[in-house]
Amino acid sequence: MAVISLHAQQKPTELDKSPMDISYWPANYPILKMSGKVKEEPAARIVYSRPQKNNRPIFGGIIKYKDLWRLGANEATEIEFFKNVHINGKTIKKGRYTLYCIPDETTWTLIVNTDNYCWGNFIYDSKKDVARFEIPVEKNTDSVEAFTIYFEEAGKFTNLVIMWDEAKASLPIAFTTETVAKKK
Question: What is the spatial distance between Cα 86 and Cα 66, in angstroms, rounded to a whole number?
């Protein structure tokens, strides 16, 4: 007896209204690597979805103040550190983490959590928080249409910059190099 299974060809999904994006530190790391200009391995990357403003009120509107936010759209935003980092006096070990945010009008609480591969914040578990950081929010002079996250050099720190609508917040990160004791 032969069993024949017919599967309909799966159609590709439509273009997402909030496309995913990736930012690296150092900036443009994949392009530098392709062109042979890499001086060191990347220190961090962030993977996130980019919802659009589309004339909607963002903060205090679709993003409620004092409510947990996935920091983007679709899957929760993920950050990967390829080195240990220091943020506001706390050490976070290299690895992949999920970022959440609790926005308010003047400060945001950024949350680093170990529960990866989450859709939204529907199964958020605060017991898996590694750290929380309060960061000030500035007002942009121009409105930013697409939610944006990137790294920028800021002296001895690297800032993780988050912008959308008229809000801009920055988290200073200090990357460390790990020293490995030599065996004798």
Answer: 26
Q: Where are the domains of the chain?
A: 20-175
Alpha helices in the chain (DSSP H): 29-34
DSSP-assigned states of every residue in 124-144: --GGGEEEEEEEEEEEEEEEE
pLDDT of residue 178: 45
Q: Is the pLDDT of residue 144 over 80?
A: yes
Question: Residue 167, SS3?
Answer: strand
Output DSSP code: residue 26: S
Confidence at 39, pLDDT banded by 50, 70, 90:
confident
The answer, yes or no, to whether residue 119 has pLDDT greater than 50, is yes
Query: Which residues contact residue 161 at a Cβ distance below 8 angstroms, ignoring those fewer than 6 apart?
Result: 148, 149, 150, 151, 152, 168, 169, 170
Rounded CA-CA distance 103/90 in Å is 21
Cα(84)–Cα(82) distance, integer angstroms: 7
In whole angstroms, what is the distance from residue 114 CA to residue 82 CA? 15
Cα dihedral sign for 128, 105, 71, 81? negative
CB 124 within 8 A of CB 113: yes
